[in-house]
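Worked Example 4.2. Read the sequence first, then its structure tokens.
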Amino acid sequence: MQSLSGQRSQRRYDILIRNGEVCDPGRNFRQQADVAVLDGKIAAIEQNIPADRALDVIDAKGLYVTPGLVDLHTHCFYGAGGVSIEADPISARSGTTTWVDAGSFAYDQVTGFRRFAVDTSRTRIFGYMHLYPPLSNPDVDVVKYVRSGVRRTGEAAIANRDIVLGIKVFVGSNMNGRYSYDFLKIARELGDEFKLPLMAHISLAPPEIHQVLELLRAGDVVTHCNNGHTLGIVDSGYSPKLGQLKPGVAEARARGILFDVGHGAGSFNFNAARTAIHAGFLPDCISTDLHSACVNGPTYDLPTTMTKYLYLGLSFDDVLLRTTANPAKVVGRLPGMGSLTVGGPADVALLEMQRGDFRLVDSQRNVVQVNEKVVSRLTICRGKRLTAV
């Protein structure tokens, strides 16, 4: 058990969470314990902390007390496309304390991202910067246009390294047409020059997945890894028949490339995910790609996405690891994020396995029924309760 010592420990705690089961898979900790919060940090994790030691006492009996959830792929800045959503109300009902915006802003919008998303939110927000600002002139050579902005993109990312994690590039013929592979090559050059990680969206070929993976480095993230699209990581597509991993996928993970779910409106398929899991290839991170086109279904929130992986056979600790410690390592900006440790940030989720009859839907509207789901009962971020108002 852990606690802070000295004068601070004599003060009354701001919040005391009692009688819950503390689950922190990032440090292999699961135990019935009380968790105390003081000044935005975890002040103690002990058994039987007296209730009179705290100003706000929360009874967590029957609940899991976990690190605040970290969603590695969201859209919460209204910079492009008009699909973004506000983080705080969803965080309050989902246990999510950290959002990573995946490419809703470019170098010319990073100041707005900081001022109107990061600085105004009670939720912690970081982001991957889009490779290039929107282009509206159809007469411009698009490859030259994207390449012309590389230095400004790199410099803006470096200048805002506290909130910018790297560069987001959309790879797929449905996203950037015949220029998709060219843009990935430009992103690779930018990443190498400025020492910035990439997050690569994958959807429809061309290019092929082995071509994408050849251009990625350790620490780069492939998002939408469990879609059934032609640029996906399995050869079975949407088929219910189990397929195989495509060549180069397992080797990419061995080189340190990370694979993220990014559910979204079109990028999660039960059958594709089942094929990858059957091959022993679990995602490194489970995320939502939450935006206006999927927040009211089929994605809803991170606990719903977690439930889909429980249905697919992962354990609760497997799923929790991929929504706390693993994405927190990718963020890498706040010591203790994604874990519950004394002295670390007081970002906490109270989760419950709710019994009942529930319907889960993937991006292609395939439906399954389950008898339990993950629900959030309380979100604490920066040591304070998050409420939906």
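Now turn to a second chain, presented in exactly the same format:
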Amino acid sequence: MKIKVKVAEKRQINKKIDTDFIRLDAFLKMCDAVQTGGHAKIVIQEGEVRVNGEICTQRGKKLRSGDKAEFENVIYNVE
């Protein structure tokens, strides 16, 4: 007996920044992925956020154009 499982595709959201880089915690707030900076700190430190496919626990990680942050099955693209 074979079981087929459908995996939902991850939603992608593009966000443009006007500077050379943005910190990961500020980017999550800008995308409305988290409510506050404190919330961003917690989810990042608990390993719930991926940057470019790898778990990132540095809330001050600099994101530049072309980077991707993933949180709760949503991919946020930095433009």
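Notes for the reader: The beta strands are 11-15, 22-23, 49-51, 54-55, 62-63, 68-71, 74-78. DSSP finds two helices and seven strands in the chain.
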